[in-house]
Amino acid sequence: MFHRSERLLLRPGWIEDAAELTLRISDEGIVRNLQSAPWPYREENARDWLALDAQARFPSFVIGLPEATGNPVIGACGIHIGEAGPELGYWIARDWWGRGFATEAVRALLSMARALGHRRVHARHAVDNPASGKVLGKAGFQPTGRLVHCFSNGRGAEVLSREYVALLGECAGDNDPSEMPQAA
User: Fold this and answer.
1) Using CA atoms, how far apart are residues 21 and 44, in angstroms rounded to an integer?
2) Looking at the domain assignment, is residue 95 inside a domain?
3) CA distance 133 to 42
4) Could you report the per-residue pLDDT of 108-123, keeping only the tens digit for each?
5) Number of other CB atoms surrounding residue 97 within 10 Å
6) Please, which residues have CB within 8 angstroms of residue 10's CB and are 6 or more apart in sequence?
């Protein structure tokens, strides 16, 4: 699955992306705000992520700039199964912060989530990362008012996070346990 927004191309990641992906995410300021990425982040971590089996209703994407020379990878995003159902995650490399790319990528991912039949998508951010809350709000998420503790591999510790939800409309099949992938 591919998605083209105004300035971005969301596409599946390929093993050939491992070195560039590692270069972009190898920033402690990014990884510390992610739940599953370890710190330090190595190319083998990128290869493992790129080799994960694709799930039709829970896709992952690299984020590229198709108009730029070489179509650089500037981040990644995806939908995975969280405790409360479909959950969205994203990151943008530091060189591209402050240009609206995160908000554009999250909006594009919500559009795909709707097309995939999800009617509710969750997200969360560490309380010490309010910029991510601003991105989620601009993209259409609403705070639930809940604070939850989540383990961050990047920090190697529990992190207090704010929870958000985006309501995407009435679509059949969302949050049906028989359609959700099972945790390994």
Assistant:
1) 11
2) yes
3) 27
4) 999 999 999 999 999 9
5) 15
6) 2, 3, 4, 61, 62, 63, 64, 77, 105, 108, 109, 112
Q: Domain containing 39: what range?
A: 3-122
Residue 13 counted as domain residue: yes
123 alpha carbon, distance to own chain's centre: 9
Q: How many domains does the chain have?
A: 1
Report the SS3 class of residue 46. Answer: helix
The count of residues in the chain is: 184
8 within some domain: yes
- Helix (H) and strand (E) counts in the chain: 5, 8
Sign of the C-alpha dihedral computed for residues 100, 142, 60 and 21 taken in this order: positive
User: CATH code at 61?
Assistant: 3.40.630.30
Any domain includes 104: yes
Helix 18-25 / helix 43-50 crossing angle, nearest 10 deg:
120
Model confidence over 25-70: pLDDT tens digits? 999 999 999 999 999 999 999 999 999 998 999 999 999 999 887 7
Q: Is 102:135 a contact under the CB 8 Å cutoff? A: yes
Sheet bearing 85-92, strands edge to edge: 3-4, 9-11, 60-64, 73-82, 85-92, 120-126, 157-167, 142-152
* In the chain, % of residues over pLDDT 70: 92
